Amino acid sequence: MEPFKIHILGCGSALPTMRHNASSQIVEIREKMFMIDCGEGTQVQLRRSRVRFTRVSHVFISHLHGDHCFGLLGMISTFGMLGRTAALHIYAPSELEPLLQMGMEAFCQGLGYEVVFHAVDTTREAVIYEDRSLTVTTIPLEHRVPCCGFLFREKPTMPHIRRDMIDFYHIPVSQIPLIKAGADWVTPDGQTVAHERLTMPAHPPRSYAYCSDTRYMPQLHRVVQGVNLLYHESTYDAQNEERARMFCHSTSQQAAQVARDAGVDKLLLGHFSARYDDEAGILREAQEIFPHTELAAEGKTFEVL
Questions:
Q1: Active site residue 67
Q2: For the chain, where are the alpha helices, taking DSSP H only?
Q3: Model confidence over 86-136: pLDDT tens digits?
Q4: Which of 124, 162, 184, 296 is most buried, with most CB under 10 Å away?
Q5: Residue tagged active-site, from 37, 67, 213, 237
Q6: Interval 218-248: pLDDT, tens
Q7: What is the per-residue pLDDT across 30-67, written as a single tens digit (0 to 9) for each?
Q8: What's the pLDDT tens digit per position in 241-281?
Q9: With contact defined as beta carbons under 8 Å apart, do 39 and 21 qualify?
Q10: Are 166 and 198 in contact (CB under 8 A)?
Q11: Residues with Cβ < 8 Å from 290, sequence gap 6 or more?
């Protein structure tokens, strides 16, 4: 299968610590690099991850809190100093556009590439990016400011050709696209070889959902139903549920409830409060509800399977 990986650059919350950086991830899919959120320190984390700067083509900002976007302007400037020429596409709530434009006029004069801004409506599900192999859809969330998550979903692919059968029946290479599309093969003596004998089923499309800062949303499981990997913020543990409610965040138990109700394959927790010296308790509470849970951590890479 083609690579589908999540590179964790930062999984802390608003206050950076010596253990965690502010929120940022790279979604690597079919040799494309997409960034989700760009908190302070993201450039350094990119260097450490050895993800090539020039391969980041699209940046998705979930909301306008500093720990999710303070690193964006500096990264834009750095791209210019590195001689970037390819356009950089920014997807974010509309309120960011004038702030970004003002910052670029002050600090990013003479860029050798175009920064293209795409305003995102955080209140509805909508496809905001699409190419031949992938769609990215917004996930409406409930936070103190307009906020959304992002659902990355592969498009279905054609069946795989069975090379042994192609060789056995001496089928010309020119006919392979037709067979992949569903055509049977008729041999020179008139025998029909069914499409199903000549192919193997394609791999099921994979999906990744990123749920940024949000209060617990009991209905959220419907939007992320059946995804292979779900990232859900888990700023607090259960004993701080009231604090989570006050600041429109979630506990690890609440994140696990979403994962369980959605029937996802794996849950990834992140956006940890600086109050915790480690997240062992957060993980334990989530695994009691949804056993297939892991903790995000800077420098870790997770495969979407």
A1: yes
A2: 42-49, 66-69, 72-81, 96-107, 163-168, 176-180, 195-198, 241-246, 252-262, 280-289
A3: 999 999 999 999 999 999 999 999 999 999 999 999 999 999 999 999 999
A4: 296
A5: 67
A6: 999 999 999 999 999 999 999 999 999 999 9
A7: 889 999 999 999 999 999 998 887 899 999 999 999 99
A8: 999 999 999 999 999 999 999 999 999 999 999 999 999 99
A9: yes
A10: yes
A11: 256, 257, 259, 260, 267
Largest alpha-carbon pair distance within the chain?
Answer: 76
**Burial class (CB within 10 angstroms; exposed 0-12, middle 13-18, buried 19+) of 66:** exposed
Contacts of 17 (CB under 8 A, 6+ apart): 274
The CA distance from 303 to 155, in Å, is 18
Per the listing, tokens 């049977």 go with: 184
Could you list the beta-strand ranges (E) of the chain.
Answer: 4-10, 24-29, 32-38, 56-60, 88-93, 115-120, 127-130, 134-140, 148-154, 160-161, 185-186, 192-193, 199-200, 207-211, 229-233, 266-270, 293-295, 301-303
Confidence (pLDDT) at 180: 78
